[in-house]
Amino acid sequence: MTILINEEKTELLSEGRKKVFFAITDSNGNEYRWHGNILPDIDVQAYLEMKEEEILLLIRRQEYPEMPAEIQTLEEAEKWIKDGCKIKVQVGVDEIGKPIYEEKVAEKIKFRNTWE
After folding, report:
1. In which element (H, E) is residue 69 found?
2. Whole-angstrom Cα distance, residue 100 to residue 33?
3. Are 25 and 1 in contact (CB under 8 A)?
4. How far apart are CA 8 and CA 92, in angstroms?
5. What is the rounded CA–CA span in Å between residue 60 and residue 49?
6. How far apart (Å, rounded) are the C-alpha atoms in residues 22 and 71?
7. Phi, psi (rounded to 5 degrees) for 21
8. pLDDT digits over 54-86, tens only?
């Protein structure tokens, strides 16, 4: 996984933050273009590298909006995807009001880059 900083912009953002545009590559070689707001006194490259797994998890959540909330790490997300992206969907209730669930495959949507 790699992070390449494309551009840093100092803008009037809350708390004096600067906007950083970067490309992040996952373990499969897929590149995502994103941005974030970072405090001006921080080493941007080091900060983004420290947050790499968190950023990729956020990207996975955008690609798979139905990903279960209990998935909290990139490793868990990648395993869930590898295992078929299965989710439980309530399809009704039985005669005593107990929910009936079926398993379905969560839909993947195309990631939308935040800069070009």
Report:
1. none
2. 40
3. yes
4. 51
5. 17
6. 25
7. -100, 130
8. 999 999 999 999 999 999 999 999 999 999 999
